[in-house]
Amino acid sequence: MKLEIVTTTLDETLLAKEAGADRVELVSGITEGALTPTYGSLKGIWQHAGVAAYCMIRPHNHGFVYSEHDIEEMIADIQNLKGMADHFVLGCLKEDRTIDEEHLQRLLEACGDTPVVFHKALDQTADQMAALRTLARYPQIKRVLSNYQAKRIDQELPRLQQMMNYALSLGLQTTFAGGIQLETLPLLAQIGATDVHISSAARIEGKAANLLDPQRIRQFRQACDQ
Fold it and tell me: How far is CA 50 from the centre of its chain?
């Protein structure tokens, strides 16, 4: 399986790469659920890290329903960071917990040729299959970041496999994210998962506020390779 590690700086990204990460998701505000990173951090990674950087576009942590001003801010950030990000990671919903296509189309237009990952806003949709069908209409969106609303991965593997395969039938790859621990990786491998996203679990004591733990990352790397 491919291993994606959440990082916040060039130094963290270099550490994650050395410990075995295939790519990073670059964010700021990791204790706030992950926000748009700085221009300087992405530029440093683009110039020096030699690893794929997926760049979060999220202006605040007050949910995924965005105002017109929020969208304008997100578009400005995309335009500022475009050319250095391998993918943009974003998502937007309406109050009824469906995909906000009007705003999504504007964000995708700003992204241009840069591929897009629709992030865990997907896990807040009222009907995930319908949401996946909506996302599949946009060729720029290649991947979704989700645990498909699983509360216990070990107890929901058949449903997770069904959702992953349904997404794949629509042309969408799944990066499993949310509640992923070392012991869940063999279970995800059993259902054919190809990508995992690790955030707090890759940090000292498993806490978002702490530094990355290279030993934990190496353990995830080893588990992904088994």
Answer: 19
Phi, psi of 117 (to 5 degrees): -105, 130
- Tell me if the pTM is above 0.90: yes
- From start to end of 71-161, where are the E strands? 87-90, 116-118, 141-146
Q: Give per-residue pLDDT as tens, 30-43.
A: 999 999 999 999 99
Three-class SS of residue 13? helix
d(CA 25, CA 8): 8
Give long-range contacts, CB 8 A cutoff, 24+ apart: 30-33.
30/6, 30/199, 30/208, 30/209, 31/208, 31/209, 32/61, 33/58, 33/61
Give pLDDT tens digits for 53-73: 999 999 999 999 999 999 999
Beta bridge partners of 33: none
Closest to 101 measured CA to CA, from 60, 141, 62, 57: 141
DSSP labels, 137-200 = T-TTEEEEEE-TT-S-GGG-HHHHHHHHHHHHHTT-EEEEESS--GGGHHHHHHTT--EEEESG
Taking only the tens place, the pLDDT of each residue in 147-195 is 999 999 989 999 999 999 999 999 999 999 998 999 999 999 999 999 9
